[in-house]
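Lab meeting, item 3. Inverse folding demo.
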C-alpha cells in the first residue's frame, strides 16, 4: 500500500481548488513526478460511471488525495501508482477497448474534468514536454 506522498494538509488544499485549477495542477504534478495514481486492489481497478452512463477511470496526481477520496469504502483497495509513460503506452489502448474516458482528480463525487483518451494524451504529452 502506498504511503502518503504529500501531507494531509497539502492534499486538502489541492482538493479545495476549483475544477480548472485541479486539472491544471494534475497535469503539472504528473509531468513533474512522472506518475499518476488510480484506485483499486491486486485484481481490479476502480472505474466509475457518470450521469450519461459513460465509463470513467478516475485518476489523481498524488496517492494521498486518492486515499482521501476512497479509503475505507472497500477493504483491501488502495492507491496504485502508474508511471505516466506506461499509462500512455499501455493503459490508453486498453481504455479505448473498454470504451472508457478519464475522470481527472475527482473530489466528493465531482470530477474536475472528464477527458476523452485523445484529449488526455494530448494534454499529458504537452505537460511532459514542458517538464
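The presenter then showed the designed sequence:
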Amino acid at each position: 500500500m502506498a504511503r502518503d506522498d504529500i501531507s494531509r494538509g497539502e492534499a486538502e488544499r489541492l482538493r479545495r481548488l476549483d475544477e480548472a485549477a485541479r486539472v491544471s495542477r494534475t497535469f503539472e504534478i504528473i509531468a513533474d513526478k512522472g506518475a499518476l495514481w488510480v484506485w483499486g486492489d491486486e485484481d481490479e481497478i476502480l472505474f466509475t460511471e457518470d450521469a450519461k452512463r459513460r465509463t470513467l477511470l478516475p485518476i489523481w496526481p498524488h496517492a494521498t488525495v486518492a486515499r482521501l477520496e476512497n479509503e475505507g469504502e472497500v477493504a483491501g483497495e488502495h492507491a496504485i501508482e502508474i508511471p505516466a509513460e506506461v499509462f500512455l503506452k499501455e493503459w490508453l489502448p486498453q481504455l479505448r477497448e473498454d470504451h472508457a474516458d478519464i475522470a481527472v482528480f475527482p473530489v466528493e463525487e465531482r470530477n474536475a474534468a472528464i477527458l476523452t483518451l485523445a484529449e488526455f494524451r494530448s494534454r499529458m504529452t504537452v505537460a511532459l514536454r514542458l517538464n
